[in-house]
Amino acid sequence: MRRMSIAALALIGAFVALYLTMYKVGVIGHLACGLGGCERVNTSKWSIFVGAPVAAWGVGFYVTTFIVAVVGTSARYAQRPGVSYLLAAMSLVGVVFSAWLTYLELYVIDAICKYCVSSAVIVTLIFIVSVADVVQWRGDAAS
């Protein structure tokens, strides 16, 4: 059940990141953001990471997380704790990266993007659920 929850969260995150990516590459003319900070954040120099839009990296992260979580529900991998550890490690990287981006929004760019905040919440929830899954596996192994 936890891996399916992670997959659902990752799918939502992928759509958020895809929306931001479509804006960044010019498919969408403006962002629907009532706060006004979304365009400022997404046009800043910080919106590119290693030559690609940060949002595109988010799409890749969420799609990969979705695939790992779905594969982890298959009969072959459902009883393997390694999938849970992998999801926890992946989502920890996502949380750290999101924390860095949130720092940049608050203290460098001086603007908040509600979609970026949504993504940070989603990756944090994925991390919490994946850690709960690891804790369950460790508890089952100890008993």
Break the fold down into its secondary structure elements and pairings.
Elements: H1 2-24, H2 37-42, E1 48-49, E2 52-53, H3 54-71, H4 81-109, H5 114-142
Antiparallel strand pairs: 1-2
What does this structure look like?
This protein is mainly alpha-helical and 143 residues long. Helix content is 73%, strand content 3%. Strands 1-2 form a two-stranded antiparallel sheet. A hairpin with a 2-residue loop joins β1 and β2. α4 runs antiparallel to α5. The longest helix has 29 residues.
Q: What descriptive keywords fit this protein?
A:
single chain, about 140 residues, mainly alpha, two-stranded antiparallel ribbon, 5 helices, elongated
Major sheet: size, sense and barrel closure? 2 strands, antiparallel
- Please state the average pLDDT score: 91
Oligomer: single chain
Poorly predicted parts: none
Number of strands: 2
Distance between the termini: 21 Å
- β content, as a range? under 5%
H-E string: HHEEHHH
Number of helices, where a helix is a run of at least 4 consecutive DSSP H or I residues: 5
Helix content: over 70%
Major β-sheet strand ordering: 1-2
Which value, in Å, is the CA radius of gyration? Answer: 16 Å
- The outline comes out as elongated
What class do helices, strands and sheet pairing give? mainly alpha
